[in-house]
Amino acid sequence: MTMSSSFSIENEKYDDDGVIKRTGTWVTASAHTIAAVIGSGVLSLSWAVAQLGWIAGTTILMLFALIALFTSLLLTSCYRYPDPIYGIRNPTYKVMVQNILGGFQYKLCALAQYTNLVGVTIGFTLTGSISIEAIQKSNCFHKNGHEANCTSSSYQFMAIFGIFQILLSQIPNFHELTWLSVVAAVMSFGYSLIGIGLSIAKIAAGGKIAHTGLTGLVVGDHITSREKMWNSFQAIGNIAFAFCFSMVIVEIQDTLKSSPPEIKAMKKTTYYSVAITTFFYAMCGLLGYAAFGNETPGNFLTGFGFYEPYWLVDIGNIFIFIHLVGAYQVFAQPIFSAVENWGNKRNPQSKLMKKEYNVKIPLVGTWRMNIFKFIWRTTYVIITTLIAIIFPFFNNVVGLLGALSFFPLTVYFPTEMYLTRAKVPKYSCVWIGIKALSVFCLLVSVVAAVGSVEGIISDLKTYKPLKAT
After folding, report:
1. Amino acid transporter transmembrane domain: from which residue to which, for each copy (predicted)?
2. pLDDT, tens digit, for every residue of 145-178?
3. Partners of 256 in the beta sheet?
4. Which residues contact 72 (CB under 8 A, 6 or more apart)?
5. C-alpha distances in angstroms, 25 versus 30, 36, 88, 257, 463?
6. What is the DSSP letter of 100?
7. Integer Cα distance of 255 and 362 in angstroms
8. Direct distance between the N- and C-terminal alpha carbons of the chain, in angstroms, rounded to an integer
9. What is the pLDDT of residue 182?
10. What gap in Å lies between CA 299 and CA 305, rounded to an integer?
């Protein structure tokens, strides 16, 4: 074989940055994105609409969808820099910020991104366990009646969720997660459709008409004006959380093959993903509110707005559990990679970091085990599981996560990177418009964070650790 032909073969194996050729398409990227986006946030949307009412609830839902779409498109144009098609790749969100905005902004981004990725994985642990607990309660209510005392504990289910994550966390990297993301995306469609179907059935059945309103919960109707304000702030955070996926969109784009250009494929992915997600969010949020009115539970599949058919509620919660098992990995992989890359740079010759052992697993195949990866990933899952056990506050945690992640990761960094990459002139119409959007979203995030923190403080006053509910 001649040297030129050998070089040609090597070129066919690797992309322009020396990484083994990426093979992802807009379809696989959409699966990753939908798996990441349609998560635990969808379960609290009907509650959020109930706090805000038809007008504000619908408006804020659509507004955040448009903002997420706009800023995600800005991010996709920054994957290659300085030219969006022929520039150097930015394989991760952090690297993108570092290359475009510089070192200080990079440190701020790393802090914001990893804080929120950790928070999301904790939230997924909590929500996944609540779904399995709901199955246990559902069967109890079906057997003993809707007024039966069906108290139970979700802590053992958090441990089960953690065991699944310890096993799945040994998947080497993002590029080998496609099958898991496809399964997770199918599950997310499944439980969303079940929730929508049950809501429609409840509305069509008639009977007691749910009380709804243009402004949501009415002050004086079991709620004070102060509680109404805090709940509204928290609801805004919940809706924001539902659209927070920017922290993984760059990593998803980095799975795409080079032809067609990544920016074209990712833009297509973004349009489809946000459109599909928003449709399901609107159906879950609005139909859920129409079905339950101002008494909508915080989690519309596990809060027992629905009791029957119990088997369908059970299937919906099984879907939620399976989906969150996969979504956890989509958000955890960037954390795993960051620590492992740091370790490799600090100790490039270390056998602990480099050496792999082939472990044969019956019916599965050979697992390439690295001791450092195994210890680190297992430890991470154990820690996030323990935190979820200590702080099991679903709606307030969801609202706070949304508030913390929405502004910096979904708005600030994408807009600043776009302004820099596109060299938008200061004080031009585009520059002023983008800056105004950024300020508006900052105010929204502050309001939502305040509401969620107040809710967590209220929960802590009555919280009894490890007590069944």
Report:
1. 22-457
2. 877 888 777 788 899 999 999 988 887 665 566 7
3. 24
4. 245, 246, 249, 270, 274, 414
5. 8, 17, 20, 7, 47
6. H
7. 30
8. 70
9. 77
10. 9
Q: What are phi and psi of 97, to 5 degrees?
A: -65, -40
Fold for 21-462, please state it. Amino acid/polyamine transporter I (1.20.1740)
Whole-angstrom distance, CA of residue 284 vs CA of residue 9: 50
Q: What is the DSSP letter of 389?
A: H
Q: For residues 299 and 128, give the distance between their C-alpha atoms in angstroms, rounded to a whole number.
A: 12
DSSP assignments along 413-434, one per residue: HHHHHHHHHTTPPTTSHHHHHH
DSSP characters over 179-226: HHHHHHHHHHHHHHHHHHHHHHHHHHH-SSPP---TTSSPTTSS--HH
Number of H helices, E strands in the chain: 17, 4
How confident is the model over 331-343, as pLDDT tens digits? 888 888 888 888 8
Among candidate residues 323, 287, 291, the one with its CA nearest the CA of residue 190? 323
Question: How confident is the model at residue 14, as a pLDDT?
Answer: 85
Question: Does the pLDDT value for residue 294 go beyond 70?
Answer: yes
CA-based nearest residue to 172, from 17, 377, 25: 377
Task: Please report the sign of the dihedral spanned by the C-alpha atoms of residue 240, residue 161, residue 112, residue 16.
Answer: negative
Alpha carbons 219 and 257: distance in angstroms, whole number? 54
Distance in angstroms (rounded) separating the CA atoms of residues 33 and 25: 12
The SS3 call for residue 74 is: helix
Whether pTM > 0.85 for this model: the answer is no
What is the C-alpha R_g of the chain? 23
Q: Do the beta carbons of residue 307 and residue 138 sit within 8 Å?
A: yes
Q: Which of 316-320, 330-334, 412-416 has the lowest mean pLDDT?
A: 330-334
Q: In whole angstroms, give the CA distance from residue 118 to residue 334.
A: 10
Q: Are 301 and 313 in contact (CB under 8 A)?
A: yes
Is the pLDDT at 275 greater than 60? The verdict is: yes
Residue bearing tokens 């990753």: 32
Residue type, 63: L
Residue with tokens 């509305």: 203
Domain ranges of the chain: 21-462
Is residue 222 left, alpha or beta, with left meaning phi > 0 and alpha meaning psi from -120 to 50? left
Beta-ladder partners of 89: 80
